[in-house]
Please model this.
Amino acid sequence: MTLFFISGCVATGLDSITVNKVDFPNNPFSSSDHVYIRYSDGTVDGTTEDISQIKQFSVKTDPEKTIVGGYISDGTNSWVPSGFGYEFSWVDVYGQTTKPTHPVAYYAQVGDPVANAAHPGFVNVLYAIYDANGQSVDGRPEVFAHSIGTTFYNDDPLDLDRSGNYLRTDFVTDGYSWFANHGEVIFVINSNDFETKPISLYSGDTLLSLKPSISVSVSPSSASVVQGGSEQLTATVDAFGGAATTVTWSSSDATNKVTVDSTGKVTVASDAPTGDYTITAISTADSSKKGTATITVTTAPAVTGVSVSPSSASIVQGSSQQLKATVDAIGGAATTVTWTSSDTTNKVVVDNTGKVTVALDAVPGITRSQPRQRQIAAKKE
Model:
């Protein structure tokens, strides 16, 4: 059913409102549907009868309170239909065409308040509204903004009497009722009040909660990967109400030398330039929420040369000689060596420090005129 005119109207001094019901065949009243009148203090008066069985009825109202709107509720879902209204004491009610699929549970302020050019000192405050699963709510759910002492501007253009005369109360204090459209609702609020006083949002008798924010984090948040290497990243999405916890991955490297697949695995090409690259995980539920990791590409470890000094030495039998190995390395490659001797008789040996020891009975290897040479080698580990 549809309640014409009621949302956003501002009226005082009324002790009742007459409701004229019109059923549409495809949108009949339900026995659970009731009409409610909203006051600026947040309280309501409503019907108790089974309105699906009657054509016209009255809602008793408090003449001492300020009416700021009204809505229809089935007990869990509260909404305001589109249409036209007449004088404040008379309401026409039609079918359920603007009833939301799901009731409202959460809200979130969208952006910063925007100065209202037509009304100096007031700002437009935009809110997005969501169901319990964090999805935008369709239809026209009633949204009531309540803030004690705060002045709201009455933005309803349809405050007319039955003769078409314009009736207007421009400002109301403490609370104002309006409806959401396409999942968003705007309230026009005194800028100083908005900055200094808390505001609560309701839909029907449901106090709306601030929508929990989705957050995305990537682990590890930073890693060093050598050229030709890889690193597995993991995205963690904190969501609520059944929102998707999946992500899409992307790399800041436009040359495709540092890439990331759909599982978060980062692969670095062997010829990738060294430096930092950003890997991003974006929430599929909210593309504004993302997490990042920094991948630092380093040169692949390599040994470019090994030298031994002295490069040659004469050692008498029973003596020793200390050799030193120098390893030229890049990319953090190990600079340690293993030592070996070419002497298979173990008479000329070298230990792990490069010290060469010649036994007393080592064959000098003389062919009457030339001593025998033996090689000591240092090799990278």
